[in-house]
Specification:
The protein is an alpha/beta fold. It has one domain (about 5-205): Rossmann fold (3-Layer(aba) Sandwich). It has helices spanning about 15-25, 40-45, 50-70, 85-95, 100-115, 130-140, 150-165, 190-205, and strands at about 5-10, 30, 75-80, 125-130, 175-180. A 5-stranded parallel beta sheet has the order 2-3-1-4-5, with helices on both faces. α3 packs parallel to α5.
Length: about 210
């Protein structure tokens, strides 16, 4: 049985929307990224240097708990963002930008490596590939106040890291979907294209 399907992608790529649509189509359970109750997110966007370590530790812990619940459960679960994105993209990016100290980054990486050694990657990783204009459009459309301070430079650096990470991803089966010309939220045909691709991958997993 397939237990763990994960949707990865940059901020604004459409991970949450697709996770929700897939959960309805396949009757999967869904684990959302913890943004609504995250106590650090708003503070982070107002003062990244002060709150970067706190935020990343919170996300790391939250996603580790999700993985344990998924693997110990009996249902197929689609997860909105993975633990690997935190460690390979967001935390290193903050460190390189001078927004997380080397001491905190090394502490974070050590904790991640311990956690990663206890779990395995998703049975299928779906990566939503999007360019910067697409990401910006999606971010503006959803209108989250705390994302208003996000810079284009920050998004660009994240996108570059995502592309590098995906090109070297070896933790399990991978499906890359270019979403720049897809409107799977409002167009059933576009969603059908994605579902057909997922079906093809899933048949190879059974």
């Amino acid at each position: 049985m397939i237990q763990h399907v994960a949707v990865a992608g940059n901020i604004g790529a459409g991970k949450t929307t697709l996770s929700e649509l897939l959960s309805k189509h396949y009757d999967w359970h869904v684990q959302y990224e913890d943004t609504s109750t995250n106590p650090y997110l708003s503070d982070f966007y107002n003062d990244m240097k002060r709150w970067s370590f706190n935020l990343q530790i919170y996300f790391l812990h939250s996603r580790y708990q999700q993985i344990l619940q998924i693997r110990n459960g009996k249902n197929t679960v689609v997860q909105d963002r993975t633990i690997y994105e935190d460690a390979n993209i967001f935390a290193p990016n903050l460190h390189d930008m001078g927004l997380m100290s080397t001491r905190d980054f090394n502490n974070y990486q050590s904790l991640f490596e311990t956690m990663a050694s206890q779990v395995k990657g998703p049975d299928l990783l779906i990566y939503l590939k999007a360019n910067i204009p697409t990401l910006v459009e999606h971010i503006q459309t959803r209108g989250r106040d705390y994302e208003g301070n996000m810079s284009l430079d920050y998004l660009k650096k994240l996108n570059q890291r995502y592309n590098n990470w995906i090109s070297n991803y070896r933790a399990g089966k991978l499906l890359v979907i270019d979403v720049n010309d897809l409107d799977f939220k409002n167009n059933k045909e576009d969603l059908g294209v994605i579902i057909s691709k997922i079906d093809s991958e899933l048949h190879g997993l059974f």
